[in-house]
Q: What sequence folds into this?
């Protein structure tokens, strides 16, 4: 479904700060599978997502989604079939617009932008229905500016906006990391419901080993831009995963 072949990425090439993040990195991601990417800070997880979504250009290599080479497409073009939710609550939403306006933007993604008719009457019922299904009361706050929502409410809205047009691929970059444990679990449950219901192929970055096991089908661990572990989530317990995780980091020190 997603095939990455011989990907290379260096930051600041030819300068004293030159830093290779990926060298001939390859991976295959199956359709309708939720894959978690684990790995220590700075190992390249977000850079990988950024190269897939197009916010960072890869130096060489291929990124093929549904048999189509996508590296030549701009980020906005890829956004039509790749949804993304980041840890940063201000990404993916327009803080000064209200919930209905933000949802309308998501529904109209790819259409010509006209602010005058941002909220189209024919879209309102569908938007309210999706918000209701999320079951967090956002449908009662349609006119609230998104900057006034709590972190959890904003992340759920971001998630809904990223999935409302059913992307081919959903990228979740630590999307619950800034939330308290209870809200984080709640958003993970909502995420799981959404991706299972819509059958969305998902790549998720997290540092939460329990979430990796509970919510994904496949777990991949990166270290220094290399895959050091690739297993089915149901083959391992949280304790075993923690042990392997630490061993893999120690091996590469
Ligand atoms: N736009 C950029 N310009 C220069 N260097 C960058 C850029 N983005 C990432 N890097 C560097 O690439 C390396 C990998 O960073 P990345 O953000 O991918 O790590 P990560 O695995 O997501 O870490 P974390 O778990 O802390 O989020 C780091 O050394 C980082 O400083
Ligand atoms: Mg990161």
A:
């Amino acid at each position: 479904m997603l095939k990455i072949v011989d990907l290379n990425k260096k930051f600041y090439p030819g300068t004293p700060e030159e830093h290779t993040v990926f060298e001939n990195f390859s991976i295959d991601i199956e359709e309708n599978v939720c894959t978690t990417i684990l790995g220590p800070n700075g190992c390249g997880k977000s850079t990988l997502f950024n190269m897939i979504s197009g916010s960072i250009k890869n130096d060489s290599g291929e990124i093929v989604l549904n048999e189509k080479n996508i590296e030549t497409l701009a980020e906005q073009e890829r956004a039509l079939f790749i949804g993304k939710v980041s840890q940063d609550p201000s990404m993916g939403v327009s803080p000064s617009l209200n919930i209905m306006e933000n949802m309308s933007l998501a529904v109209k993604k790819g259409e010509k932008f006209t602010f005058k008719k941002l909220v189209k009457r024919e879209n309102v019922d569908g938007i309210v229905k999706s918000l209701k299904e999320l079951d967090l009361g956002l449908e009662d706050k349609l006119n609230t500016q998104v900057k006034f929502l709590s972190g959890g409410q904003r992340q759920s809205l971001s998630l809904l906006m990223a999935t409302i047009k059913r992307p081919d691929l959903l990228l979740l970059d630590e999307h619950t990391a800034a939330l308290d444990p209870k809200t984080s679990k709640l958003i993970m449950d909502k995420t799981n419901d959404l991706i299972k219901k819509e059958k969305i192929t998902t790549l998720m970055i997290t540092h939460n080993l329990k979430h990796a096991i509970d919510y994904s089908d496949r777990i991949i661990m990166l270290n220094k831009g290399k895959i050091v572990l690739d297993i089915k989530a149901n083959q391992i317990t949280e304790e075993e995963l923690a042990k392997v995780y630490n061993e893999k980091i120690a091996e590469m020190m």
About this structure: The mean pLDDT is 94.
